[in-house]
Structures are given as structure tokens and as C-alpha cells.
Amino acid sequence: MKPDDFLAFSLKCSCWLFVFLGVLAPLRLGVKSLARDDLPRKHPPETCERPPNPMKHYLFKTEPGTWSWDDQRKAKDQTTTWDGVRNFQANNIMKAMKVGDRGFFYHSVNEKRIVGVVEVVKEHEIDPTDHTGRSKEGFGMVTLKAVGPFPTPITLQTIKQEPKLEAMVLVNNSRLSVQPVTAAEFRHICKLGDFQA
């Protein structure tokens, strides 16, 4: 083969090689990519973890002469069972409580004010002090732990003067010993009481 013919043949082979690589490489990458995409995903990113349940809020009323905020703080680990509830509605509210939910600690009788915040550390269970026989299942209780005091206790009178709190259960049904509180109400009262929620 002449030198010129050899040079022309080499150039032609090189061109075909570049064409071959230019076509084959993307195809191979595509096959690999497709194979990866076709593999079943056991835990899709958008569903691998369930979002945590949002915290709910409550209000716990107590007569300070029977069990006060100071008693709660002095208890072992600042924790106590919230027993003695003998109202069906209040008992049902406690049944819905989950660990981590928080509530206001409210002194009733003459004080009528929120003095602190507690947290549910154990969910609803049978109250062993219930001997009334009024409930087939028996009235229950939850276990609460003190979170912190209100730097500025918030009175019932103050709450009634707040337009944002006019729908609060405490304003409309103050006799209920355990009450639900909305997230907005909880934030607003914490702000009024200088409590960092």
C-alpha cells in the first residue's frame, strides 16, 4: 500500500471510530441510567418518613390549696399523675393527649390565673383512685411534668379582655377542669406572660 493510500485509510478508520464512540457511549449511559431508574425504591424520598404529629395544647385547672404550682415543682422530677378527674368530657380530652403535648397550669378558686406550663410525659391510663363506679372503663389520668413558670401570670380577667381569646374554652366554659387550647391561643398567652414556648 502506498503511503498516501495508507494515510487516507487511517483517516477513514479514525472517522468511523469517532462516529462509533459518539453513538455508542450515550446509548450505554442511557441504558445504565434507565436500569437505575427502573429499580424499585423501597423508601421513596417523599414518603420514607412520616411528619411528626403536631403538638396539641391544653389547660389543667387545679385548686392551689389542694395541688399548687409549687407542689408540682417540688414533686419528684417535677412530675405527677393528674388524677381525680371525674368529668366525662374532661376524661375524654385526656384520652386524646399524646406524649409531648403541653398545657397551661391554672390556679382556680380565688386566684384564677395561669402560672406555668406542663408537658404530658405519659398518656392516659386508668386512675387507681377512682372508686365511683360511674364509668364502665373507669376514669383515667395522664402524667404531667413541669416545664416552667410564667414570668407574668395571666389572669382570667386579662384573658377575657383579649379579643384574640374570646373563643377560648376557659372564657366560655370555665368550670371544665381539663380543656383544649388552640395553638394560636397558646402562643398568644405565652407572649402575654413572657413565656418562651
Concise structural overview:
By secondary structure, the protein is α+β, with helices and mostly antiparallel strands. It has six helices and six strands, in the order αβαβαβββααβα.
Any overview of this molecule?
With 197 residues, the chain is an alpha+beta fold. It is built from 6 helices and 6 strands. It has helices at residues 3-38, 69-74, 88-95, 156-160, 169-172, 183-192, and strands at 57-62, 79-82, 102-107, 113-126, 140-155, 178-181. It has a 6-stranded mixed β-sheet. Strand 3 (102-107) and strand 4 form a beta hairpin. The longest helix is centred in the N-terminal third of the chain and has 36 residues, at 3-38. It is globular and about 40 Å long. The N and C termini lie far apart (90 Å). Residues 23-51 have low confidence and may be disordered.
Oligomer: single chain
Rg measurement, Å: 34 Å
What is the mean pLDDT? 82
Helix/strand structural class: alpha+beta
If helices are DSSP runs of H or I spanning 4 or more residues, what is the number of helices?
6
How can the largest sheet be summarized?
6 strands, mixed
Principal-axes shape call:
globular
Structure summary, number of beta strands = 6
DSSP helix fraction: 25-40%
Q: DSSP strand (E) fraction?
A: 25-35%
The low-confidence runs, each spanning 5 or more residues with pLDDT under 50, are: 23-51
State the end-to-end distance. Answer: 90 Å
Q: From N to C, what is the helix and strand string?
A: HEHEHEEEHHEH
Strand order of the largest sheet: 2-5-4-3-1-6
